[in-house]
Amino acid sequence: MVTLASRNIGASIPRLEAREKVTGRADYVHHLRLPGMLHGKIFRSTLPHARIKSIDTSAAAAVEGVYRVVTIDDIRTVIPHPYYGPAFHDQPVLADGKVRFAGEPVAVVLAQDRHVAEVAAGLITAEYEELPYVEDEVEALRGEVMVHDELRPAHTFADLKYLQGRKGTNVALDYKLRRGDVAAGFAKADRIFEHTFRAQPVMHTPMEPFVSIADVADGRVTLHTASQGPSFVRIEIARLLGWPENRVRVKVPYLGGGFGGKLYIKLEALVTALSLLVERPVKISLTMEEQFFMVTRHACTFNIKSGVMNDGRIVARHCEVIWNGGAYADIGPRVTQKAGFTSAGPYDIENVAIESYAVYTNRPPAGALRGFGAPQTAWAYECHMDMIAEELGLDKVEFRRINLLREGRPQASGTPMKDAALDKALEHVADRLNWSAPFDRGSGCIRRGRGLAIGFKGITSPTTSVAVVNLFGDGSCALYIGTVDMGQGSDTVMAQIAAEVLDIGAASIRVIHSDTDVTPYDMGTLGSRSTFHMGTAVRLAAEDAKRKIEALAAELGLPPRSNAPLSELFKRKYGMQAGNIIGTATFIPDYQKPDADGQSTKATPFWGVGAAGAEVEIDMETGQLTILRLINVADVGTALNPRLVRAQLSGAAIMQLGFTTTEHMVFRDGQLTNGSLADYKIPSLLDMPREFISEWVESRQDSGPFGAKGAGESTTIALSPAIGNAIADAIGVHITDLPLTPEKIFRAIRQAAGAPLPGE
Amino acid sequence: MRSFDLIEPRKLDDIFDLLTDGEEPVRPMGGGTALMLMMKANLFAPARLVSLRHLGPPFVGLSFDPESSVMRIGALTTFSQLEHSADIAAHLPVVTQTMRTLANVRVRNVASVGGNLAHADPHLDLPPVWLALDADVMLVSRNGERIVPVEEIFAGYYETTIADGELVAELRVPVKAGWRSTYVKITTRAAHDWPALGLTISVSGGPARIDDLRLVLSAALDRPTRLREAEAVLRERALDDDVLREAGDAAVAEVDIESDSRGSSAYKQELLRVHLRRGLVSLLGAA
Amino acid sequence: MTVPRLIRFVLNGRPVSAQVMPHETVVEMLTQQFDLRGARESCGQGLCGCCTVHLNGKPVSGCLQLAALIDGGRIDTVEGLEKGRQLDPVQQAFIDAGAFQCGFCTPGFIMMTKSLLAEHPDPSDDEIRHYLTGNLCRCSAYPEIIEAVRLAARRTAQAPLAMAGGAA
């Protein structure tokens, strides 16, 4: 724990942009307007899988005020190969001969007035030849209906360079991990346990819906886009256009929420193509309803089998994880790998076999969402742990203690555990639940239960961050980074890191927002990587600047450590207030590519760790769930800004609470039935648990900046199984499918009582 | 959203002309919240909207007439006005109670009682309460007034028996001495949501003898519906476990509850039994 | 025939006029004609509160309010809260409690909190939750928001003039 000898590290400095946000003046692409700009309204497929026979845009084009109506044939005149994606170039800018999910963009109407564009889009008609479709991931894995005829790997990212996809199947990626010999493990085990768990599709629903503007002029394009990954946008747009990167400029102000959704290419390719066609700025701003067709979270079926000794040691575990990737891969293959390699849980198991499949289906594409697959896998392995403990008559905390990965031990990938405070997190949550004290189980029709869970995640690797620290003639400082502040407070924390090195106040630093003409490369603001990766780059860049200041002082003949202000040094050197000191650094952590068995000594630069505990009350006559206490515990290393860290832990947990109890994208016959906030219910103030605690354990990430590591996703991981386990403790039955609704709980109660409720 | 003519007449006669003139869809508008949602979702594209906001009594006004013991509520009364009305709190406290979880503060500031009734979305909270309170609706048209029990207004999903050219002008709610009421709103997704089931219970008497009652089921059917069979079981009986069970059976048997995104029909039937029992016990006192 | 009409109203204390189409909403008018971006359309259904403005002193959903019908009325937005360089106590409380993350929903919450405290100067947690349940924050800064409302309530109880808009 860093003691507060520093004014910057461990200080709850208010957000640098606080005033802008409370006065409504903060910049978002949402309200940006450019002169001459046209609005685009998307016309979408109404079928989950079909060949497009014809598209009739004539009525739309005839509407007064419509500038142009565009389909894929028009797109091809400016982008000859209009397919994109971070893993596979499988997603067309507009549907190309086929639609693969209901809601897929087929055409766009351009008009100066948004209402005109919308009315005209409603007049487009398309004729389709319906094709068989597949929605379920298990069916898609094993079955006959193919979503894609051919797969084109992207080769953009280092960790996805070797993708091929399995020909003649819907498998975009199959990931394997082998450690030891599971068959032998199962053979020697005293008991075998096998369960299947399912997680549902959900959506990020950021309050600022997806929005992008492209402005093509003079052979260059400027994109104003709500994106967490401007560098990737630049690379991919440049690739699509066949232009050098330096003719593509991507600017990102603040994001009105991201949560992983605003990544890779979303609307950027489409608006770029449109702007190229009409030679005017083009903006597409989605409605909340349309967001459900942009990107979602992977639904998942997880078959988990464990071989356990009577003394509680788990000696073998087999994980088969099937991810519902939707119609286009997006970053699904990486989810499949990254959540795949930790899907056996934070446990020290000698024999592990994992198969993790990214599968195509005729649903909206699934991509990155806070947790990146770890929550879905923890839902399975942590409920499974409780079910095993119950069968063996073991205390649930003790069973975990017996098997938990300890410092230095190899994880299933072979990478040793380092600076992952799993044991502390487990003990902390057990302590907060008063686990060893007797528990009031309720009376009458109210049953009470408690449960806990612990999980972890590996971090996407290898990834690169570059930072620039610029000191001006008067000594004031600007920080140029591609990390996007989407509410997590990265501007503030990065300023704190630089300020600590330069020994200035963090609030005095201006953090320059993403503008790829100006800010250097960053892989992306995602997967809890920024504090560690960009934070290290910022620290190194500030140290580089500091060395340059010292060199300048030496050059001017000043004794070392004379600490003359930089403005003084500049005056001496240039005769006036002039000049810059620019410190720069690039950081990429060590990484070792896993072998064919998924083994590597460096699969991740650090581990994300999260534990959760819940006390719940169930009304046995209705299944209604009341969460009395919800405890979220993470290992964040050093909390660089405690207030911001707590906000991350708490915010991530409440979001995951929604994914656990109230959120569910419901499909019928390939159609989404509840794509609006009226029917897709995210948590409000009234959904908050009565007691809600978010804390971190004392720990240090030695390789992180000032001992810190990421915190954005940690409390998503174990929350669902903690609640599931608490409910099971109350009603005596484990529910294996998310979300945990009152009806599901009630049906489970009735099933267990031998009086099942009819129908579904 | 397509554009439309927006007209704000100040005289009732002008409104009648506007409502029935021409062939294109014309709609009267109170607060407009429900209408705006339908227009934005492209479910409804009127050629003309006629705002009623400048009308006077009987459309505006909220008063209790002690002689007839009737609360008169003008159709343009906003939910917020109901929520903050001392008269309503004193004489129809179930309405004040219902306001607490109805939509949100912003909607309540704008939505009108008349517009809410005319919208006929079966999930709405207030129409079943009016029904349980035996309210009457005064409708006006070029031909004069007619007064109908509120039950006769509901015809199905977004369907009413209000004729073209007719407007809801006023709600008349009898204040019956000795009656107590409650509205039970069951949500099954987020805490704040459209109800899976709404149950309005109005009773007079006590646990030893239920003199009279009204039971209204809402949200689980296409219109707010009196549970007359269940009422018959309970009327003039003492409250005990047997009669409650019998009433629950009767309630479930007399309606055809639909499954939807908020619950299957079997589950809603269970909810109906449980909340009917609990609601009656809480209103009347333990058996 | 759908024609624009001229409306006159008071916007953040200033008399203004605007030409609005019948189907134009208050949020559209404020962003496109007055460059006020605090009220934002997000859910489009009046459920999230990002578009909250005060109409004749009461909070309404700007995305569901036809601009033409506010003729003769008064609109107050978050931009009108600051007096000179002095933040409104509610704004300051949101900063001090750290009651926002991405900030997109924040003006809506602030405008609702102003109304809440005008109606309930010392609200219980239950009153706060019920009043603000129609405002959604996906970053889920709910615990901090409740804290901010409590903080603002305490401070305005100590200095009631600040709420009335006078210099504090």
Please tell me about this protein's structure.
The complex is a heterotrimer of chains A (760), B (287) and C (168). Chain A is built from 19 helices and 29 strands. Chain A has 760 residues and is of the alpha+beta class. Chain A has three domains: 18-26 and 463-587, Aldehyde oxidase/xanthine dehydrogenase, molybdopterin binding domain (Aldehyde Oxidoreductase, domain 4); 32-131 and 204-291, Aldehyde Oxidoreductase, domain 3; 372-460 and 605-752, Aldehyde oxidase/xanthine dehydrogenase, molybdopterin binding domain (Aldehyde Oxidoreductase, domain 4, 2-Layer Sandwich), CATH 3.30.365.10. In chain A, α14 (490-502) runs parallel beside α15. Chain A is globular and about 85 Å long. Chain B is α+β, with helices and mostly antiparallel strands and 287 residues long. Chain B contains eleven helices and 14 strands. Chain B has helices at residues 12-20, 33-40, 79-83, 86-91, 93-99, 105-110, 113-119, 126-132, 228-234, 241-254, 265-284, and strands at 5-7, 26-29, 48-51, 62-65, 70-74, 136-141, 144-149, 154-156, 159-160, 167-174, 179-186, 197-206, 209-218, 225-226. In chain B, the strands form four sheets. Chain B has a five-stranded antiparallel β-sheet. In chain B, strands 11-12-13-14 form a four-stranded antiparallel β-sheet, with helices on both faces. In chain B, α10 (241-254) crosses α11 (265-284). Chain B is globular. In chain B, 50% of the residues are buried. The model of chain B has no long low-confidence stretch (mean pLDDT 95). Chain C is globular and about 50 Å long. Helices cover 35% and strands 15% of the residues of chain C. Chain C has a five-stranded mixed β-sheet, covered by helices on one side. With 168 residues, chain C is of the alpha+beta class. The model of chain C is unreliable at 162-168 (pLDDT under 50). Chains A and C meet through α1 and α17 of A and α2, α3, α4 and α5 of C.
What is the element layout, followed by pairings?
The complex is a heterotrimer of chains A (760), B (287) and C (168).
Chain A: H1 18-22, E1 38-44, E2 50-56, H2 58-61, E3 66-70, H3 72-78, E4 83-84, E5 91-92, E6 98-99, E7 105-111, H4 114-121, E8 125-130, H5 137-142, E9 171-179, H6 182-188, E10 191-199, E11 211-217, E12 220-225, H7 230-241, E13 248-251, H8 268-278, E14 282-285, H9 288-291, E15 296-297, E16 299-308, E17 314-324, H10 332-341, E18 351-359, E19 366-367, H11 374-392, H12 396-403, H13 422-432, E20 446-458, E21 465-471, E22 477-480, H14 490-502, E23 510-512, H15 530-555, H16 566-574, E24 581-587, E25 607-619, E26 625-635, H17 642-661, E27 667-668, E28 671-672, E29 691-696, H18 719-731, H19 742-752
Parallel strand pairs in A: 1-14, 12-13, 15-19, 17-18, 22-23, 26-29
Antiparallel strand pairs in A: 1-7, 2-6, 2-8, 3-7, 4-5, 9-18, 10-16, 11-12, 11-14, 16-17, 20-25, 21-22, 21-24, 25-26, 27-28
Chain B: E1 5-7, H1 12-20, E2 26-29, H2 33-40, E3 48-51, E4 62-65, E5 70-74, H3 79-83, H4 86-91, H5 93-99, H6 105-110, H7 113-119, H8 126-132, E6 136-141, E7 144-149, E8 154-156, E9 159-160, E10 167-174, E11 179-186, E12 197-206, E13 209-218, E14 225-226, H9 228-234, H10 241-254, H11 265-284
Parallel strand pairs in B: 1-3, 2-3
Antiparallel strand pairs in B: 4-5, 5-10, 6-7, 6-10, 8-9, 11-12, 12-13, 13-14
Helix pairs in contact in B: 9-10, 10-11
Chain C: E1 5-11, E2 14-20, H1 26-34, E3 52-55, E4 58-61, E5 74-76, H2 89-96, H3 106-119, H4 125-131, H5 142-158, H6 160-163
Parallel strand pairs in C: 1-5
Antiparallel strand pairs in C: 1-2, 3-4, 3-5
